[in-house]
């Protein structure tokens, strides 16, 4: 089974940037897509965006379009979430996850990393 480890969270002021990383180890050939989710206190977990592992096609939720960029480095088996123009509403625990097929669920999760944006 693929293991996912996130890093890069922290505290940043509004308007600042952070880059999160999600390193995958194990049978990465089984990955179809990877996604970033976030969960803010008292709120449900929501998807931030996703990337197709092979082709690199990305998609984003409206709240982060134009501010966040997902990319991948296949040689390093790592997916990144570049977050720009952060605002306090982006404060959450961020998780990366993977799925193994187009119709599959995201069923393999990292441990999460805290992002806090101060006003």
Q: What keywords describe this structure?
A:
119 residues; 0% helix; 4-stranded antiparallel beta sheet; mainly beta; 7-stranded mixed beta sheet
Q: What is Rg?
A: 13 Å
Q: What is the β-strand count?
A: 11
Please indicate the percent range of residues in DSSP E strands (runs of 2 or more).
Answer: over 45%
Helix content: under 10%
Structural commentary:
The structure is a single chain. This protein is mainly β. The protein contains no helices and 11 strands. The chain has strands spanning 3-7, 10-13, 18-25, 33-39, 46-52, 58-60, 68-73, 78-83, 92-99, 108-109, 113-118. The strands form 2 sheets. Strands 2, 4, 5, 6, 9, 10 and 11 form a 7-stranded mixed β-sheet that branches. A 4-stranded antiparallel β-sheet has the order 1-3-8-7, with no helix packed on it. A hairpin with an 8-residue loop joins β9 and β10 (108-109). The termini are far apart.
Task: Furnish the topology, listing elements before pairings.
Elements: E1 3-7, E2 10-13, E3 18-25, E4 33-39, E5 46-52, E6 58-60, E7 68-73, E8 78-83, E9 92-99, E10 108-109, E11 113-118
Task: Give a short summary of the structure.
The protein is mainly β. The protein has strands at residues 3-7, 10-13, 18-25, 33-39, 46-52, 58-60, 68-73, 78-83, 92-99, 108-109, 113-118.
